[in-house]
């Protein structure tokens, strides 16, 4: 490999056929280039979708109810199923071992929030302290809801970043009083949410407070939980699916809802959704690899083809070399090394161009589903190995053919 | 140096088999200079290829410097060729992108000789054929005679036991042919065994022994008085 003489010979032949080498290299370089771009985007999609899930905890299970659509046990469809505090406690008690964080939510859309003459419509959510973890909210300032807030039905509120921006105009909101539908709440915390503006336009207040202040009685709108995660992702998915299934059955039985009534009681589990999306991403990634690999194969076939032509052209020369004592192995090494050299150099050029382009466009891509498309180090290393293997493959057949050349045939004067 | 007994060779061409060599007995002693003559189709090229281990006989024995040449694998054949034989071809067969010096050094490269030593040896042989000033020239910058001299230097570089020359003057004019023959004679004078295939009478008579092949058999094998190439050249010049 570090035989100077052989390298000289390789450079000599490459130098003699610049255009041919360039065109061959181009096909390899574009193959790698395309592979890198595809892989970059597939990782971008992965990151984008992952961040979509980060809005809420990935292991979230939520229970929502609506009106029934099927008659069951003599009851007509169109009945509204109302969840109550007691449902929350029952489920909490029953599944205590499997559940991690728990909250019941009493919410009001488009609640009028006023501060110092500024008014906006936001979503009000009466919730338990666990809501912070279930929503994957990050506290920016102050504190989140506490058990004392609940027990003493304090009129405190945690507002989202966007509300702070809208109503407080840069002023510190902690300790200020806001009015929600005319009821005064003291702001004790500000949160941000990976879900962005849409998720940050909410006001969290203690559940009992919201029920008392806004005529809620013991009614709740929905329940939300996170499932305890086990180390094995598939196991966690199965557990979370079984749990949501079981909860759905419990509530349906309690309120006499037809077991097939999908809309009356809905228990969604994010983990199962996440799994579906992740496997979709895996499929996309595989498809990209597939396309990329075949593009490289096309390039490699080009190299192989060129090397065959080179061997053909150099038949006589190889014959002479053998006549004066060249071993078959040295002939193989000569051809193989040239093929690997061309693919490696062209491949690295393609790799750098691809990575460079990704670096360049990465900050400009700002889409919900694609985030900073980039190739990581491992992927780059993998493509490099693919390259070298491809080069060896491209050179092997021509090299073997060269080694088989009989000097007597090569030297015949015709 | 060379001992050959009952050598047979046939070629398969489609359905029919062509019996080219039909039992050749032949021996060469060290320091001899032998020309092999014969019309085309007489089997002389096949004979030379077998001598050069580029081809293998079907039957018979071949000893080169006491070593049996039979069923060699490619690796051993390559090694033997490198050690025992130097080839000179009608069409020179120099590698056209290598300088004269690099061409001469190539057999040494395959012997595993180090670069510095290789260059020194190659230069020595180039000097011997009188082309040391042309060392850095590419073959296409050289005349036919010069190319053949480079080829001779290359054949000598590995210090082989036997030089095999296949129509070495076939592509050269008379004057250049005589110059090349003069060089080959000089090499023989120094004790190198030389085998030379030719169909030109005058060239054959510049060797010391002429073997005539016809239809795959040796029909005549006789010692001749060697005509010195430089004298022949002087005579030819005097004629004009």
From TrEMBL, chain A:
Q: Which GO terms describe its cellular component?
A: plasma membrane
User: Where does the chain cross the membrane?
Assistant: 21-41, 287-311, 331-357, 377-397
The reply to whether Zinc-finger figures as a keyword in the UniProt entry is: no
Keyword set for this entry?
Answer: Cell membrane, Membrane, Transmembrane, Transmembrane helix
Q: Superkingdom, according to UniProt?
A: Bacteria
Query: Where's the MacB-like periplasmic core domain?
Result: 21-238
Extract the Pfam families matched here: FtsX, MacB_PCD
Q: Where is the ABC3 transporter permease C-terminal domain?
A: 289-407
Instruction: Give its localization.
Output: Cell membrane
Where do the coiled-coil regions begin and end?
A: none
Task: Please give one Gene Ontology molecular function term for this protein.
Answer: transmembrane transporter activity
Annotated membrane topology: Multi-pass membrane protein
Q: Which family does it belong to?
A: Belongs to the ABC-4 integral membrane protein family.
What is the official name of this protein in its record?
ABC transporter permease
Protein species of origin: Patiriisocius marinus
Lineage at the top is:
Bacteria, Pseudomonadati, Bacteroidota, Flavobacteriia, Flavobacteriales
From TrEMBL, chain B:
**Species the sequence originates in:** Patiriisocius marinus
What name appears for this protein in its UniProt entry?
Answer: ABC transporter ATP-binding protein
Q: Which family does it belong to?
A: Belongs to the ABC transporter superfamily. Macrolide exporter (TC 3.A.1.122) family.
Report the domain of life of the source organism: Bacteria
Q: Does the keyword Nucleotide-binding apply?
A: yes
Q: Which GO terms describe its cellular component?
A: membrane protein complex
Keyword check for Disulfide bond: no
Q: Which UniProt keywords apply?
A: ATP-binding, Nucleotide-binding, Translocase, Transport
InterPro entries from the xrefs? AAA+_ATPase, ABC_transporter-like_ATP-bd, ABC_transporter-like_CS, MacB-like_ATP-bd, P-loop_NTPase
Give GO terms: molecular function aspect only.
Answer: ATP binding; ATP hydrolysis activity; transmembrane transporter activity
What SUPFAM superfamilies has UniProt attached to this entry? Answer: P-loop containing nucleoside triphosphate hydrolases
Residues annotated as domain ABC transporter: 2-240
């Amino acid at each position: 490999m570090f035989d100077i003489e052989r390298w000289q010979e390789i450079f000599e032949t490459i130098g003699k056929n610049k255009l041919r080498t360039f065109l061959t290299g181009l096909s390899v370089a574009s193959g790698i280039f395309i592979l890198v771009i595809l892989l970059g985007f597939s990782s971008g999609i992965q990151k984008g979708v992952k961040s979509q899930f980060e809005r809420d905890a990935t292991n979230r299970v939520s229970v929502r109810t609506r009106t029934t659509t099927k008659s069951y046990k003599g009851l007509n469809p169109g009945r509204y199923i109302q969840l109550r505090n007691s449902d929350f406690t029952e489920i909490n008690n029953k599944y205590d071992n499997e559940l991690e964080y728990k909250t019941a939510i009493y919410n009001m859309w488009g609640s009028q929030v006023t501060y110092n003459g500024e008014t906006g419509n936001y979503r009000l959510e009466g919730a338990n302290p666990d809501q912070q973890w279930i929503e994957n909210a990050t506290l920016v300032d102050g504190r989140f809801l506490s058990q004392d807030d609940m027990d003493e039905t304090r009129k405190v509120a945690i507002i989202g970043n966007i509300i702070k921006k809208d109503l407080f105009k840069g002023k510190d909101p902690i300790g200020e009083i806001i009015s929600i539908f005319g009821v005064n709440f003291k702001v004790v915390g500000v949160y941000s949410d990976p879900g962005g503006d849409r998720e940050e336009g909410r006001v969290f207040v203690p559940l009992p407070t919201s029920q008392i202040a806004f005529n809620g009685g013991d009614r709740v709108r929905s329940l939300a939980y996170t499932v305890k995660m086990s180390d094995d992702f598939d196991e966690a998915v199965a557990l979370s699916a079984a749990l949501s299934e079981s909860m759905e059955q419990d509530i349906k039985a309690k309120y006499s809802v037809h077991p097939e009534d999908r809309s009356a009681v809905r228990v969604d589990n994010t983990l199962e959704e996440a799994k579906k999306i992740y496997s979709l991403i895996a499929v996309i990634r595989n498809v990209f690899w597939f396309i990329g690999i075949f593009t490289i194969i096309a390039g490699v076939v080009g190299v192989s083809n060129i090397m065959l032509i080179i061997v053909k052209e150099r038949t006589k020369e190889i014959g002479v070399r053998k006549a004066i004592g060249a071993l078959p192995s040295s002939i193989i090494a000569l051809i193989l090394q040239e093929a690997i050299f061309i693919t490696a150099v062209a491949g690295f050029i393609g790799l750098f161009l691809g990575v460079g382009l990704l670096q360049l466009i990465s900050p400009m891509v700002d889409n919900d589903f694609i985030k900073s498309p980039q190739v990581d180090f491992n992927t780059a290393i993998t493509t490099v190995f693919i390259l070298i293997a491809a080069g060896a493959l491209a050179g092997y057949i021509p090299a073997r053919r060269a080694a088989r050349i009989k000097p007597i045939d090569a030297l015949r004067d015709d | 140096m060379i001992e050959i007994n009952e050598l047979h060779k046939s070629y398969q061409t489609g359905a029919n088999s062509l019996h080219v060599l039909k039992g050749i007995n032949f021996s060469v002693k060290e320091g001899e200079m032998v020309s092999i003559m014969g019309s085309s189709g007489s089997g002389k090229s096949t004979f030379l290829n077998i001598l050069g281990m580029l081809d293998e006989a079907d039957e018979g024995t071949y000893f080169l410097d006491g070593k049996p040449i039979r069923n060699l694998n490619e690796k051993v054949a390559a090694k033997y060729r490198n050690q025992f034989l130097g080839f000179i071809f009608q069409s020179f067969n120099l590698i056209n992108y290598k300088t004269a010096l690099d061409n001469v050094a190539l057999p040494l490269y395959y012997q595993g000789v180090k670069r510095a030593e290789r260059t020194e040896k190659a230069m020595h042989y180039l000097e011997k054929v009188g082309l040391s000033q042309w060392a850095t020239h590419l073959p296409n910058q050289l005349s036919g005679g010069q190319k053949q001299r480079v080829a001779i230097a290359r054949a000598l570089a590995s210090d082989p036991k036997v030089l095999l020359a296949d129509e070495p003057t076939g592509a050269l004019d008379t004057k250049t042919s005589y110059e090349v023959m003069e060089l080959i004679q000089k090499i023989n004078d120094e004790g190198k065994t030389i085998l030379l295939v030719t169909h030109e009478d005058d060239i054959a008579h510049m060797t010391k022994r002429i073997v005539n092949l016809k239809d795959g058999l040796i029909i005549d094998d006789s010692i001749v008085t060697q005509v010195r190439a430089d004298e022949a050249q002087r005579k030819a010049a005097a004629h004009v």
